[in-house]
Amino acid sequence: MSASPSTAAPVVEITNLHKSFGPVEVLRGIDLVVAPGEVTCIIGPSGSGKSTLLRCVNLLEQPTSGTIRLIGVEVTDPDVDIDPVRARVGMVFQSFNLFPHRTVLQNCTLAQVKVLGRSPAEAERIARKNLEQVGLANRADAHPTQLSGGQQQRVAIARALSMDPELMLFDEPTSALDPELVGDVLAVMRDLAEAGMTMLVVTHEMAFAREVGDRVVFMDGGVIVEDGSPSQVIGSPQHTRTRTFLRRVLDPTHHHEADEH
What we know:
Mean pLDDT: 91
Shape: globular
């Protein structure tokens, strides 16, 4: 009998995670479990610790204390070999982090060959398939500077997908984009979610969180204040802090702040 999502091992298991930068405690005891195929959207005000949480999951930041298990491996164990685990986790940032001097295709094949040991031909086949998935098959030979921000972000997603990740982390993937380009990136993310990708998404896009998220986590002041289905957390929030935040971001006259952490 195959395991149902509820009994399958979690893709992410975070227990009592703390992270300090000097005297400032940015994460103050985070517990979070993400099941296979689940799309978890993390929302909250600037400086609430959302991006730091994501960076700890990928060990771009070293947690101060607590444990993180990814795909069954405790990555906070000092003796862990992190590289094979990290290769299974795709990350898409606010900034696209593409190599400007390489073509779109080269951006999507480089790590496949270097990290996964694929042949250049195999890497190219996989890269082209993923560029097609994000609607950019015809731009494979372009350089990132010849593309719009939205196209660059879709290349960054194709690059991450080319590594066959079991988990995709998105850190405010649309916040640096012009408003008219946001929709194309969110459409690609929606397709990924529908295909069953496990996703942890830090986002300001409430409509996306409501429609695509299986779960919404509201963070404030380095803690998880509220965690539940989109209809619970966005539709009928229990906490004053959540209600205040949602009132602010759902008010069209309010301009999004740039995120600090």
